[in-house]
User: Fold this.
Amino acid sequence: MKKTLALILTLALSLAALTGCGSKTETPADTNTDNSAQTEAPATLSGSVSTNGSTSMEKVIGALSEQFMADNSGVTVTYDPTGSGAGIETASNGSADIGLASRALKDEEKAGGLTETVVALDGIAVIVNADSKVADLTVEQIGKIFTGEITDWSEVGGDAGTISCIGREAGSGTRDGFESITGTKDACKLDQELTSTGGVIEAVAGNPNAIGYASLSAVEGKNTVKAVTVGGVACTEETVLNGSYAIQRPFVLVTKTGETLSPAAQAFFDYATSSTASQLIKAAGAVPVAK
Assistant:
């Protein structure tokens, strides 16, 4: 009798287990997709982005703009190489989305409602004619040359000849950076004052007694001019990044403090300052700061 009851109990338990398993069958409610919860695909980015300013940033902005437009076919990015001073002004008055400056903003410019974002660092190469015997100068010697205290190449190890100083126009970020570091602010005696980096390079290339300064990114690969070492340190990406090269300055994106950029301009700004853009910035001859 006990064996019979045990058998009946075992059968009852087995049946209950089978019934429980069957109850786990998915219902239509489990498999239906709630269309209201689906996320919509992001809208395609479109519009235009205007940048204006530093001529020294031409290669960097050109490379970034080209790739950004390739990735966002509905966006046009324009660049107007007017110089740092003009670029800062366009950011201030709203005639450009993003101003470009190859120098840090001054305190009064920040107080006037502008924000700087460093996108890269750039060495300012001190250049002489390709045939010059001068290979190295100290910051002090460079300062004395540009203020007229040293007037002949023979005083700094070169062949005899009157030194001809070539520089940039007032308002240039390259000039501002160069003069600030060499202690020649408002004291340079220039034989030529030119409005572009390319113009300075061409002038030095065409004059065996000339000396000038230009962005590292513009000088690399040129065989018509020679970049001298400064205090024994060459102007390279590595020495700029580690700070051992003395004459360097930032490449800056200038925007109005507290104002929202258009979606296209904000997307370009975010791209330019991201680590994704680092290789393009390097290829353009500057030193990216994004990690």
Summary: The first strand starts at residue 47 and ends at 53.
